[in-house]
Design a protein that fits this description.
Elements lengths: L11 H20 L8 E6 L5 H12 L3 E6 L12 H8 L5 E6 L4 H8 L4 E6 L5 H15 L6 E5 L6 H12 L3 E5 L8 H8 L4 E4 L2 H4 L5 E4 L10 H7 L7 H7 L5 E3 L20 H21 L1
Parallel strand pairs: 1-2, 1-3, 3-4, 5-6, 5-8, 6-7, 8-9
Helix pairs in contact: 1-5, 1-11, 2-11, 3-4, 5-6, 5-11, 6-7
This protein binds phosphoric acid mono(formamide)ester.
């Protein structure tokens, strides 16, 4: 069975296969088709989401499938004390694939152990967000034609951002040069850094302007208030970096591509959106074709 739990479970060939199928889905995105008719997707979201849940649902509907959804732990029998294993053992009888977001690290792996249908991890705590990484890679290849040899800066909350933990592992596998840019309090976890340093050239800095002229891609992340165990820790770092239009015009290459998994709060000023380098809303659209590709590969082979 084809669960999608961590980007580390994907070989480079597996990722290439998803990206190739996503390219085929560009046309289907416009026309729709019925290749998943009769199949049911269940989105099981125990933590907030706009893009991941709705793009999976849009993807399923565009391929002719149906969607059932449960959003928020208060709406589920979890509020009555049901555990995740029992929820999954129930929901598996209602659908052909489960997309799960959960605040606890390891929740998707646990769900997969109890599920008779494929489980797709839509984000588990600060751990992994593998489908975000697939759409990030797809966007980079679409914009730049390749990943190997690119200089990719990852800016912001590298400590708690699951999008970053997934992405840098894949970038390292694909031979990108990685720039880790963060306040000292939000450095990437040691185990992730050690892992990627064995595979890729890695530079760490606190000052984005120092490396901006060198970058092909700048991947910006939000400081995620909800991930901080201690509110005082959040207060110390909030607003500690911001991408401004002046900064991009002064330091960045014209061909720079700025990405962001979104939601954005205050780390990219709104007038950056008008610059040709800003691609984060194209990235959102790419999320649909990549998730169409994944659902097709999982449910149709
Ligand atoms: N990028 C992302 O995961 O967005 P949502 O939290 O809105 O799903």
């Amino acid at each position: 069975m084809f669960h999608v739990i961590s980007i580390r479970d994907f070989s480079r060939d597996d990722i290439e296969r998803v990206l190739e199928r996503a390219r085929e889905m560009e046309e289907v995105y416009e026309t729709g088709d019925d290749r998943l008719e009769g199949k049911i997707l269940c989105t099981l979201f125990f933590a907030p989401s706009t893009r991941t849940r709705l793009s999976f649902e849009s993807a399923m509907l565009r391929l002719g499938g149906d969607v059932i959804s449960m959003v928020g732990k208060e709406a589920a029998s979890t509020a009555k004390g049901e555990n995740l294993a029992d929820t999954v053992r129930t929901v598996q009888h209602y659908c052909d694939v489960i997309v799960l977001r959960h605040p606890k690290e390891g929740a998707a792996r646990l769900a997969a152990e109890y599920s008779s249908v494929p489980v797709i991890n839509a984000g588990d705590g600060a751990n992994q967000h593998p489908t975000q990484t697939l759409l990030d890679l797809y966007t980079i290849v679409k914009e730049k034609g390749r990943i190997e040899g690119l200089r990719v800066g990852v800016l912001g909350d590298l400590k708690y951002a699951r999008t970053v933990h997934s992405l840098v592992q894949a970038l390292a596998e694909f031979g990108a040069r990685i720039y880790l840019i963060s306040p000292p309090e939000l450095r990437i976890p040691e185990h992730v850094r050690v892992d990627i340093e064995g595979k890729a050239e890695v530079t760490e800095t606190e000052d984005v302007t120092e490396v901006l002229p060198e970058l092909d891609v700048l991947y910006v992340t939000r400081i995620q208030r909800e991930m901080f165990p201690d509110p005082e820790e959040f207060e110390k770092v909030k607003g500690s970096y911001k991408i401004t239009r002046r900064m991009i015009e002064e330091y960045a290459d014209d061909d720079l591509v700025i990405l962001h998994p979104l939601p954005r709060v205050d780390e990219i000023e709104p007038d950056v959106d008008e610059l040709p380098q800003a691609r984060y809303f194209d990235q959102v659209r790419n999320g649909v074709v990549v998730r169409m590709a994944l659902l097709d590969l999982i449910l149709n082979g």
